[in-house]
Amino acid sequence: MFTKLGEYNKMKCSICGSESLEVIKSKGKKSRELLLKCEECGNIFREIVEGNIPVDCRVVVSEFENSSKTFIKLYPDETLHNGDLLDVNGRLAEITSIENKRGGRVSTSQVDEIETIWASYKDIPARVGISVDYGGRILSEKVEVNPDLEFTIGDVVKMGNIIFRINSLKTQERKLRKGFARANVTKRVYGRPIDEKRFKYDLTSKVLHHE
Predict the structure, then answer these.
(1) 99 & 152 share domain
(2) Residues 34-63: pLDDT tens digits?
(3) Which residue range(s) make up the domain with 73?
(4) pLDDT in tens, 123-159
(5) Of 125, 130, 127, whose CA–CA distance to 189 is shortest?
(6) 117 neighbors 98 (Cβ within 8 angstroms)
(7) pLDDT(7) > 60
(8) What is the reported pLDDT for 115?
(9) CA–CA distance from 31 to each of 3, 26, 61, 80 (Å)?
(10) What is the tally of structural domains in the chain?
């Protein structure tokens, strides 16, 4: 994918002086050798650029059950972490996972080593599945909650006339049987009903619909 250069640098075509240039090829890090093409006259020439220029980085953004792929401009030597916020098409999105070029999922990486960023928009609630196991009969619901809500194994939760204990979580990357996960990375909460009147929080008003 070509990178438009005009918006980042005041480089000019060596023949016609146009600033409307495309990067055909780029190599190097701190000092980059660029093969450029002028969009006005078609001239192809080389330039050495000191410092970084932004590159296209692929982002897959989740919005409820749907996801969309786009590209954003980031600097190659910039380091990203899970939880960082990005501007994706004018909307704030939080990084939930990073896939590097070796095919592994990591919590932090330099941009030039990233294959795909996985993120979720911050301006919508998180939609999470709830499954309560009545000895083989499963009650399933979906809830919409604050993306920052933490589901913790062992929590006692109320949902309608049911009180249940969370015994496992399924996140975007793995299944958890201990610990906790924030709602924005949680796909499903699994629990069993218990005979208890006290609970940590109430999801009754958050139920979306029956699955």
Answers:
(1) no
(2) 888 888 999 999 887 766 677 889 999 988
(3) 55-121
(4) 888 899 999 999 989 999 999 999 889 999 999 999 9
(5) 130
(6) yes
(7) no
(8) 93
(9) 17, 10, 32, 22
(10) 3
